[in-house]
Fold this protein.
Amino acid sequence: MPALWSFLDKFESHVCRILLAAFVTLLFVQIVARQAFGFSITWIEEVSVILFVWFAYFGASHAARIAAHNRVGFHLNALSREKARIVEAVGDLFWILFNLVFIWQAIQFISRLKPFVKAQTLGWEMRHVYLVLPIAFTLMTLRILQVNYLKLVHGIDPADPDRASVEAALELAEDEQRAYEKVKR
Amino acid sequence: MDSYLVEILFGGFFALLALGAPITVALGVSSLAAMLYLSDNPIKMVQMAWSSVGSFPLMALPSFILAGALMEAAGLSRRLIAVAESLAGPFTGGLSAATVMACLFFGAISGSGPATTAAVGMLMIPAMVRQGYGAGYAASVTAAAGGLGIIIPPSIPMVIYGISAMGMQPPAEAVEAHGAFQSVSISKLFIAGFMPGVVMAGGLLAMNYIRSRMRGFHGSSEPLSIRKILAACYQGFWALLAPVVILGGIYSGFFTPTEAAIVAIFYTLFVGLVIYRELDLREVIKSLDTTTWLAGRVLLVLFTATIFGRILVENDIPGVIAGGILALTTNLYLIWAMVIGLLLVVGMFMETLAAIMILVPVMLPVAYMVGIDPIHFGIVMICTLSVGFQTPPLGENLFIASGISGISIERISLRAIPFAIASVIAIFIIACFPDIALWLPRVLGY
């Protein structure tokens, strides 16, 4: 069970790895085909743009899980963490509201799309392609609830990913430094 | 124009920011409120969610983030910095000048300011301290020069500026008064950014020379060694080739920026896995993860900023702002001073990419009205926002330089003030002489 939970906790991240690796590789194949063999595979550009948009919104949901979305929060640092968490939760309430409106509109939009509206070269029905929008925004809403539950009930603030990436950058640079000194000697 | 629209849009935006809501939410909710006020159908948002993100040029954003992350993990960055370090020699302030040069080189493979500061600072700050530079000075010069990472192409803020500005047509009155404007493209921005980056670096180098002289930071006793430089270049051959491939490909028109980024990714994978053998699968997956959340959060802001910008433009709010400014003054230099001053303040408090997406729909029409070229305007905007990396409270470079040197953020930011002044002078020079930015793209036929 814990393995399943940890998988679900990083679900969007796993999806995004695959999508990112897929569209980057497809574009590389396209470049090689064009520059080296002089022909272009017409469907690649369209499919990679679709994968990219899916990647963007699942990525936004993953960013919500790790609380990466930038806030302008210097005035909140003056408050105690307990009070600041409540203020942030009120801010997040507006986020959930926005997402609910968006999900509702997206469902409306998709249900009105006729089956003959298709992607130009792939022939995929656009209503299936667009289905990712309500799914990703629903996941994002669940992530906002999850983070606020952790914050308000358990008092756990997610690690600031910008701070964490600074630490990771420093760690990496330290490794580099050691390797560099080894070469010098 | 509707009487309360401005209050709803901007009042809602700032109220939500004050509540601590993410920037993207503040944009989205205030736009939604404005749509309901104007009795627009919010179903338009769905189409915009797709069209704002789903464009081929925008794919350069995740691709350059991924390429930068891989290059660091693959050991390319370290070798580039070693080349710059070998150039230090026996000059006054030589090693800190080499730090600025290292940031300049590094900017040519990375599109991010903090990444540049981290990679360069880790090697150069301890080296400077060993040679008798003050630790505070060493940290501040690195934090200041790290901003060059977003000016020297490839640059992630330029991708975002290009995408935001492409959708904005110059107003008809502006075309009538100043003639046709050139179109915006990311390639053009990448070419235009090169010379201004050198000018900004020149400003930092001049200030570094003055301060090192005053404080008596002399160079090392050993003379400049050609052998050492050649050895560093030989060891860094594959790393030095990376900017040649990326920038050469774009400047010659061989690749679009998106394609150049894709090529950079596979080039780095090849060098990291086959030649340097410093890259493993774990690090590749880590790079994919970092790219995911960085790109995900930026692209969500792009979606809501697109709705916000559309409402602004449809209701001619930028035109009203432009009219207000032109009623105050029509002096081009005063307007530049106001723009640069505002951008410096915004850069202190807001994340760079979000600031660009919010300010382009507001400021670019003003620039068009006074006859400023959109490419030139974008370069000045990015140069100015790069100063924000070294100014508190949101100075990412300060956090990193402080983490490496162990000096407090307050002290570094005080020491960095002269460098900020040098950068602002360089920005005014770039603003007053448009040809610094526009000459190179013209010569290359863009």
